[in-house]
Amino acid sequence: MKKTVALMLLAFGFGAKGQAVFTADYASQADVNVFVVDYESQADLKVFKVAYASQAKGNDGKWFWVPYASQAQKKVFFVDYASQADLKIFFVKYESQAGWRTSAKKHLMY
């Protein structure tokens, strides 16, 4: 019984990992420093802004902005220079374009 409960909690924990994102006011408050690049080829991650939280499940570049830091799975801070960034992103127009270009940095958004 304990194993079943533990497995259910573990499965729910992994399933709950969405990409609810909050924009921090300061770099020290953020989990990840992000820079928005001008070209898709420069990005580590192609991001699509979804309209509903339910669309932002998984770690596949579909982000939903939340109004409070306590609601976010990740807090990001937008830096001014690419050299300051942990992650470089490019905003795409279509949901199907979202995804990782550089899987080496995938761990930043888990």
Binned strand content: 25-35%
The low-pLDDT segments are 1-17
> Ends: how far apart?
29 Å
Largest sheet: 6 strands, parallel, barrel
Inertia-based shape: globular
Lateral arrangement of strands in the main beta sheet: 1-4-3-6-2-5
Q: Kindly state the number of beta strands.
A: 7
How are the elements arranged and paired?
Elements: H1 2-15, E1 20-23, E2 32-36, E3 45-49, E4 62-65, E5 74-78, E6 87-91, E7 99-100
Parallel strand pairs: 1-4, 1-5, 2-5, 2-6, 3-4, 3-6
Antiparallel strand pairs: 3-7
Q: Could you explain the architecture of this structure?
A:
This protein is α/β, with parallel strands linked by helices and 110 residues long. It has one domain. The chain has one helix spanning 2-15, and strands at 20-23, 32-36, 45-49, 62-65, 74-78, 87-91, 99-100. The chain has a 6-stranded parallel barrel. 22% of the residues are buried. Mean pLDDT is 86; it is low at 1-17.
Short note summarizing the structure:
By secondary structure, this protein is of the alpha/beta class.
Kindly list the characteristics that best describe this protein.
alpha/beta; six-stranded parallel β-barrel; 1 helix
